[in-house]
Amino acid sequence: MSEPPHEFGAESRWNPSVNASASGGRGTFVTMCGRKVYEVDFEQKQSVVANPANTMVGCSTCGKVCPTHAISLPDLTRQSSGSLRVVVTSN
């Protein structure tokens, strides 16, 4: 798959992560993600980022619907020049 049109270059890729110790593998945010970024790993009993290239910069629906707050999302900020900058923070 080529770079999706919503990407702003490799440096601004929107890469969510799943905290395995917090994820209960319920799949709540997996089913809510229309871009199919996540899957449930039934052997490990946790949700995982399966298709990171499908992410959409700025989307945070998964983080809002996850009942255990297992999703970490980059902090998206706008610089005064109007260009996008992604700052990854850990929880």
Describe what you observe in this structure.
The protein is of the alpha+beta class. It has a single domain, classed as Alpha-Beta Plaits. It has two helices and six strands. Strands 1-4 form a two-stranded antiparallel sheet. Strand 5 and strand 6 form a beta hairpin. The termini are far apart. The relative contact order is 0.27.
Structure described in brief:
With 91 residues, this protein is an alpha+beta fold. The chain contains 2 helices and 6 strands; from the N terminus they run βαββαβββ. It is globular.
**What proportion of the residues is helical, as a percent range?**
10-25%
Named at the architecture level, the CATH assignment is: 2-Layer Sandwich
Assign the structural class, choosing from mainly alpha, mainly beta, alpha/beta, alpha+beta, or little secondary structure. alpha+beta
Number of helices: 2
Tell me, rounded to a whole number, the average pLDDT: 75
